[in-house]
């Protein structure tokens, strides 16, 4: 299901949880930073690019999968975080060092496979701060990364039945 943000199992049914985390997937359009205000345009209106909309307080683990080598003529950088902590979830990496088949989870990508235990986190995101991709130094003019976010709600709320756990993470923006 392209663009749905849902991971589908071999049986055709969506995964709703993995290792007791909910699963959200963001498949943004390719980087086209040579075009004003698109994903990849450093300091354009799509920088930062919101990947996931967060409500309440959540625990998250997040990583990216590079499907097409990233291109930047001016040593552009990519990081993932929240407002006020732009590299708080995935550290700053030079775009041209993020290659197809790479798993982007830190300042040094891993090629092809990685142990789930090495994925950073879980991180606490408070007060519904959205998860975004941030650029620095220069435009990223080509390539693509999609992101997988494992999340759990931790906000306390109430409903007619009493206290419940609230909070959510969902893909944001245009999906391909």
Q: How far is the N terminus from the C terminus?
A: 10 Å
| Overall SS class | mainly beta
- Distinct helical segment count: 0
Largest sheet features: 7 strands, antiparallel
Question: Could you report the average pLDDT, rounded to the nearest whole number?
Answer: 85
Q: Fraction of residues in helices?
A: under 10%
Gyration radius from CA atoms, angstroms? 16 Å
Contiguous uncertain segments of 5+ residues = 1-8, 158-163
Describe this entry's structure for a reader.
The chain is an all-beta fold and 176 residues long. The protein has one domain. The protein is built from no helices and 14 strands. It has strands at residues 17-18, 21-26, 49-55, 58-71, 77-82, 85-94, 102-104, 110-111, 123-125, 131-136, 142-153, 155-159, 162-166, 168-171. Strands 1, 2, 4, 7, 8, 9 and 11 form a seven-stranded antiparallel beta sheet that branches. Residues 1-8 and 158-163 have low confidence and may be disordered.
Task: Lay out the secondary structure.
Elements: E1 17-18, E2 21-26, E3 49-55, E4 58-71, E5 77-82, E6 85-94, E7 102-104, E8 110-111, E9 123-125, E10 131-136, E11 142-153, E12 155-159, E13 162-166, E14 168-171
Antiparallel strand pairs: 1-2, 2-11, 3-10, 3-14, 4-7, 4-9, 4-11, 5-6, 5-10, 7-8, 12-13
Brief overview, please?
The protein has no helices and 14 strands. With 176 residues, it is mainly beta. It has one domain.
């Amino acid at each position: 299901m392209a663009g749905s943000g849902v991971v589908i199992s071999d049986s055709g049914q969506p995964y709703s949880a993995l290792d007791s985390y909910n699963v959200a997937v963001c498949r943004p359009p390719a980087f086209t930073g040579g075009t004003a205000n698109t994903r990849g345009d450093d300091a354009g209106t799509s920088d930062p690019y919101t990947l996931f909309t967060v409500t309440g307080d959540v625990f998250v683990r997040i990583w990216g999968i590079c499907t097409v080598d990233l291109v930047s003529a001016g040593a552009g950088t990519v990081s993932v975080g929240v407002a006020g902590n732009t590299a708080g979830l995935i550290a700053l990496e030079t775009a041209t060092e993020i290659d197809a088949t790479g798993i982007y989870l830190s300042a040094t990508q891993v090629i092809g496979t990685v142990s789930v235990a090495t994925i950073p986190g879980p991180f606490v995101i408070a007060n519904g701060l959205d998860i975004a991709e941030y650029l620095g130094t220069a435009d990223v003019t080509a390539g693509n990364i999609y992101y997988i976010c494992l999340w759990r709600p931790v906000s306390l709320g109430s409903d007619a039945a009493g206290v419940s756990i609230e909070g959510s993470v969902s893909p944001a923006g245009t999906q391909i």
